[in-house]
Design a protein that fits this description.
Layout lengths: L2 H11 L10 H5 L1 H8 L1 H4 L21 H10 L15 H11 L11 H7 L1 E2 L19 E6 L4 E6 L4 E7 L9 E2 L5 E5 L4 E6 L4 E7 L3 E7 L5 E8 L2 E6 L5 E6 L10 E7 L4 E6 L4 E6 L12 E4 L4 E6 L5 E6 L4 E5 L4 E6 L11 E5 L2 E6 L6 E6 L5 E6 L7 E2 L6 E5 L9 E5 L5 E5 L7 E6 L5 E6 L4 E7 L5 E7 L2 E6 H5 L8
Antiparallel strand pairs: 1-8, 2-3, 2-33, 3-4, 5-6, 6-7, 7-8, 9-10, 10-11, 11-12, 13-14, 14-15, 15-16, 17-18, 18-19, 19-20, 21-22, 22-23, 23-24, 25-26, 26-27, 27-28, 29-30, 30-31, 31-32
Helix pairs in contact: 3-6, 5-6
This protein binds heme C.
The site of heme C (HEC) has 23 residues, from helix 4 and helix 5.
């Protein structure tokens, strides 16, 4: 046993936080403070253990004030205790700075470590192939409650929860369903991919594919799961039946530069996965139709003029509408693999939240804007912006459903983040406004499978799902939830409704 392990063992025996006395040189620097006070839960290597990973990538979304508050006060009702009583402000500040700095050598996560993390709780085919509940399995919602890392399963007909389960720390990207709606695949920030059997209400397998993960996609044929990582810079292909590792692909551009993955998608009509890359001007396509035979093809690398930060697929997955960092936009036709048009965009459009519908015989696409209070509406044939609808403020999500006349927009990036506005999909006029709870962030709308009810998140610790009748706009009920950041209807997702992002 090396010194550190011996010391950790001693720390555990001493009751975790009751650190034994140390020499002056040990308590001086933040690395020593970390070893003394944090390593037992967060891992000596900062890769996470009983507590989450604490690498700079892990903490990216934590604002400086939030980080300081966690160190000082801890997180209520978790094992994370505050350290204000033990460490003075200067020490806490030095720890916070140190956590934002990467280890001297970039941490690795090898194939052997991925395989070593793999757990199968229920072998494929060992659980009954029928739901253990009465609710319509195609009208279930999964509600991701980020406050305490849980998912609630809602019956979309009775609008009642039927189950609630704990997830890995911080799910990243939406949960993805198998085509039959039975299985859900979830990625967590720290790289865990989990497979959940929604009919039996239990996890079946888990594997840690990386140290910092963006999201997962599941193939249309139900055979493969692809995870996109930020750390290490890899794509990880898993077999969907038991989540066993099939292949790790290094994400490296033509000039040898590695890239983080910004997101992976299932382009079902093309029978391929698409990976969007954050640091290199390429989009990768991995056809999976032939993979069942055991050979995994090399990705097709589509070279672009700009890095695409955020993008939208048309319903056929032939075109991607992308926004680049400098604010410009382009349309890429995936078939020849090249740009076919420029898009007139301004501010910071959030194309990833775009939706489409038919208007005057034309397919149009609309997306919110993270910097400006406006919704841009683009004709999907001419690629021209045909309207700009002013809203209450910069928003994040836009949602609708085939059976409802309105598109619902939030203003969550603005002071009016407690409001939602309804846009008539034909006249493009704002026809209604809702404030579910004054002063509380309201965003992320998802419809029941028939489009009759709209479910809105109040994204607070003591938040709720607020259910509206999508026609009369009357509130139907509130279901209490712990920071419900997103909700996903099995039918709308598996049929790829044009009113929701995929
Ligand atoms: C007894 C175990 C334990 C110890 C000791 C501990 N933590 Fe934690 N820490 C946790 C757990 C569990 C969480 C997750 C809490 C939650 O669910 O939000 C956490 C969360 C955090 C977070 C928030 C991470 C995020 O992404 O939201 C930070 C930052 C953090 N800890 C830093 C520290 C530091 C620095 C120390 C040492 C000074 C420390 N922790 C000691 C268990 C511990």
């Amino acid at each position: 046993m090396n010194r550190l392990l011996r010391w950790l063992a001693a720390l555990l025996l001493a009751g975790l936080c009751q650190a034994p006395a140390f020499g002056a040189e040990d308590v001086a620097g933040p690395a020593a403070l970390y070893r003394q006070h944090c390593a037992a839960c967060h891992g000596a290597d900062r890769l996470g253990a009983m507590g989450p990973a604490l690498l700079p990538e892990s903490l990216e979304r934590l604002r400086p004030a939030e980080l300081a508050a966690v160190l000082r006060e801890g997180r209520p009702a978790t094992q994370m205790q505050g350290f204000a009583g033990e460490l003075d402000d200067a020490r806490l500040a030095s720890l916070a700075d140190w956590l934002r700095t990467g280890p001297a050598t970039a941490p690795a996560w090898t194939d052997a470590e991925i395989r070593g993390s793999h757990v199968v709780y229920h072998a494929a085919g060992s659980l009954p192939a029928s739901p253990v509940f009465q609710a319509d399995p195609a009208n279930l919602f999964l509600v991701v409650e980020a406050g305490s890392h849980h998912v609630s399963v809602l019956d979309g007909d009775r609008l009642e929860p039927i189950h609630r389960f704990r997830t890995r720390f911080a799910l990243h990207g939406g949960p993805k369903f198998s085509q039959d709606g039975r299985y859900v695949f979830m990625a967590s920030r720290d790289g865990w991919v989990s497979k959940y059997d929604l009919w039996n209400l239990t996890f079946t397998a888990e594997i840690r594919v990386g140290l910092n993960t963006r999201n997962v996609a599941v193939s249309d044929d139900g055979k493969w799961v692809l995870a996109g990582n930020t750390l290490p810079r890899t794509l990880v292909l898993l077999r969907a039946d038991d989540l066993s590792l099939a292949k790790v692909l290094d994400v490296t551009g033509r000039d040898g530069q590695g890239s983080r993955v910004s997101a992976v998608y299932d382009a079902a009509p093309r029978h391929s996965f698409i990976a969007a890359l954050k640091d290199i001007a390429e989009v990768w396509e991995i056809p999976y139709a032939g993979m069942a035979s055991g050979t995994i093809p090399e990705p097709r690398k589509i070279v672009l003029a700009d890095v695409l930060d955020d993008f939208y697929f048309d319903q056929s997955y032939r075109h991607i509408l992308g926004a680049s960092r400098d604010g410009g936009g382009q349309v890429v036709d995936l078939t020849p693999g090249r740009k076919v048009a420029d898009l007139a965009l301004s501010g910071m459009p959030h194309l990833g939240s775009g939706i489409t519908w038919m208007r005057d015989g034309h397919e149009v696409m609309a997306s919110p804007n993270l910097r400006q209070g406006r919704i841009s509406v683009i004709d999907m044939q001419s690629w021209q912006t045909i309207a700009t609808v002013p809203t209450n403020g910069p928003g994040f999500f836009l949602r609708s459903h085939e059976n409802t006349p309105y598109a619902w927009a939030d203003a969550m990036m603005s002071p009016k983040r407690d409001t939602l506005q309804l846009i008539d999909k034909q006249t493009l006029a704002v026809v209604g406004s809702l404030t579910p709870s004054p002063g509380r962030t309201a965003a992320h709308v998802e419809f029941t499978r028939d489009g009759r009810y709209a479910l809105v998140s109040l994204m607070e610790r003591d938040g709720a799902i607020v259910v509206y009748d999508a026609r009369t706009l009357r509130e139907v009920k509130r279901i209490p939830m712990d920071k419900p950041i997103g909700k996903y209807n099995v039918f709308n997702k598996t049929t790829r409704s044009s009113g929701t992002s995929h």
